[in-house]
Write a structure and sequence with these properties.
Blueprint: H1 18-34, E1 41-44, H2 51-61, E2 66-70, H3 77-85, E3 92-96, H4 103-115, E4 117-122, E5 129-134, E6 139-144, H5 152-155, E7 160-163, H6 169-182, H7 189-197, H8 203-220, H9 227-236, H10 246-258, H11 266-273, H12 277-290, E8 294-297, E9 300-303, H13 305-310
Helix pairs in contact: 3-4, 6-7, 6-8, 7-9, 8-9, 10-11
Bound molecules: adenine.
Amino acid sequence: PGVNDLRPRRFAEYIGQRQVVNSIQIAVEAAKQRGDTLDHALFHGPPGLGKTTISQIIAREMETTLVHTSGPALERPADVVGILSNQKHGDVLFIDEIHRLSHAVEEYLYSAMEDYRVDFIAGAGAFAKTINLPLQKFTLIGSTTRAGMLSPPLRERFALTYHLDYYSVGELTHVVTRSASILSVSIDQPGAKVIASRSRGTPRIANNLLRRVRDYAQVRREGEIDDEVAAEALHVEGVDELGLDRLDRLYLETLARNYGGGPAGINALAASANEEVQTLEDVVEPFLLKIGFIMRTPQGRRATTRGMTHVGAPSDAAADAGQ
Ligand code: ADE
């Protein structure tokens, strides 16, 4: 099975995000009963938690077609007008990284979302003329790691807004068990729990780690995964007991050693760690904040005592001032 075959295809198969899924299921069922389209929906939250998967499930349950695009891919207004004018009644336009839309493209979405029409200017100068193009009624689903980076006019046009949060270890154990069964991998409950508890609350990571542990079990053992095999395999992969990987630890170590625990600005940290600011902000920091290893202060990022201790750096009470 390929990478995508582990994704649940129906709400009934979806594990976790109970509140979000319950709410969407009601909206979907109600729209279907009325023969109407689903309202525009916005999903925000850290990567790997199911924003795309849930959108695909919505389209399938609505029995419509999903067109997948992204903020950076929609460079010119013509790109989005082209897609919108080809959509059939009820189709879903999924825009990943919607916070990265250009201003010009975003402006076209306002009337498209609200009135199902776009006005565009054809030609130039004295020959320019406005063409008013009616669209079929459609559903826009936006996905972003940063709800705060959407402009208010765009954000306000989504009737449904959902935040996806990290999964519990119990939920991820369930995800790992389900995925192992699809991949025909033999794993016991303690083995699944070891993987789940080192997946940083994220199903995408759990499924990736399951594949790495499967490889290890296949090559170094007899193929069966228990807690001991899982722990060994993840140690080889550089994933520690809390699920922090090399990049998470690099971030903490840089903050601890180069900046004495902080405060340090994100640009300085990114430069020292030789990483992209956006990767640190979207991928690394949310989980370190959640487990209380770092803090964001007006002066910059700080490591907490627990964060410092985790990477073996000496910490003093001053590092936690203001916590
Ligand atoms: N695979 C990845 N995420 C999943 C989820 N939330 N439920 C079931 N399987 C998954």
